[in-house]
Amino acid sequence: MAEILTTKDAIKYIFTLLSKGKMEEAVKYYSRLQDDIGYLLINHIPADNRIQLRVAKMFYLAKDFEKAALIFENVGEFEKAAMLYKKADEFYLAADMFYKLGDLQNAADMYERNGNFDLAAKFYQENGNLDKAALNFEKSINNFLAGKMYYKLGKINKAIELLQKVKREENSYFEAISLIGEILSKKGYVDLAIRKYLSVVKDLGINDETIGVYYNIGQLYLKKGIIEEAINFFTEVVNYRFNYEDAKDILKDIQDGKYSKQTEDKKVSFENDSDDDDEEEKKLVSVMDGFEFLRNTDLFSELNLQEIKLVFNIATSVEYEPNKVIIDEGVDGEGLFIIRKGKVYVEKEINGEKKKLVILGSGSYFGEMSLIEDTPTSASIVAKEQALLFLIPKDKFQDLLESNDKIALKVTKEFVKTLSKRLRVTTEQLSKEKMRK
């Protein structure tokens, strides 16, 4: 058909081609149309499942994935619809399809890609992926839930950093403060925990929001053996709400002498603190173990302070005993490894025999190819001695690069330098081998 005068004629012609099985002609004709008539075409599809699937196939072959997905959604084939919505970068629609399939992991991934971080966090949490849940709560500026999640994951410094960002006007503020105190207490900083609690309640008095903080202060004073102060706070709790937790039972146990008194009561207070101290100055800070080492690694030499902190926050420390295999040849890469202490050797099977190729020491890194391609590793890495390494998992690193173009560009440039250097070394070695022969 050389020329189409109306949309109606174009739709009729496409149905004619499809009914005759001329799929290739239908695809070419639909692709060449200047105006998008896809949705009109879908609205005119007869109630015939066979024709619907043919139209879907035509859309797919023409790379109009969104409309192909819509047809599959209409006929209830949600899995195909999900994959095609994903291919069309319609992540929110793909998430809806995965959710209908009960695939919470993929639904969460699609919501995250679409920027719906609250929903992504919710589904990651339901699916047990707490790392991803924490990251998405953080992205959605839900500092309380992010901090709470990082605490569950054992990432204490990150938890405290975020919990302190919860503002006083937020409903979760006092719960966040309680959690900070709990963390500090478990880490052995009981005085610091008490000071943190006192800074919150000193101007408020006891009420429905602060009663939990009062109870916690009483517990901490009891832990330190400062009985008189413990009695004061538990009495405040019981007077305000008689049956709150086990406060009245604790008071009875104190009266019965079940708690030993410290030789000298040393009340923790804020008497030396100025009332008009800036709130920021009272925040807790922690030192990041290994941060300076990571910062000085060649791979991250171009990153600024904030960028390297983002990398540090997704890195974990791993330790290997001598002769322990870190990476097996021929398996999918786990992520990027950076050697902090110790040495490892690269081992490759050649003609059925394992040969040690090179020894790597502190500051060296390996596994970087797993970050940019899904191919099996080309060699094994084995700990030569006790080795402490940073591991940056593949999925977290890719998420970071996708969300930060500047980091992606800087790191990619360093990857290219490393690959070029290794290629030169390999070429020189091959040249020497040829000369020997």
Would you mind describing this structure in some detail?
With 437 residues, the protein is of the alpha+beta class. The protein folds into three domains: 7-102, Serine Threonine Protein Phosphatase 5, Tetratricopeptide repeat (Alpha Horseshoe), CATH 1.25.40; 172-282, Serine Threonine Protein Phosphatase 5, Tetratricopeptide repeat; 291-436, Sandwich (Jelly Rolls), CATH 2.60.120.10. Helix content is 55%, strand content 10%. It has 21 helices and eight strands. Strands 1-8-3-6 form a four-stranded antiparallel beta sheet. The chain has a four-stranded antiparallel beta sheet with strand order 2-7-4-5, with no helix packed on it. A hairpin with a 2-residue loop joins β4 and β5 (353-360). α16 packs across α17. The longest helix is centred in the last third of the chain and has 32 residues, at 405-436. The radius of gyration is 31 Å and the shape is flat.
Characteristic terms for this protein:
10% strand, alpha+beta, 4-stranded antiparallel beta sheet, Serine Threonine Protein Phosphatase 5, Tetratricopeptide repeat, 8 strands, 437 residues, Jelly Rolls, 21 helices
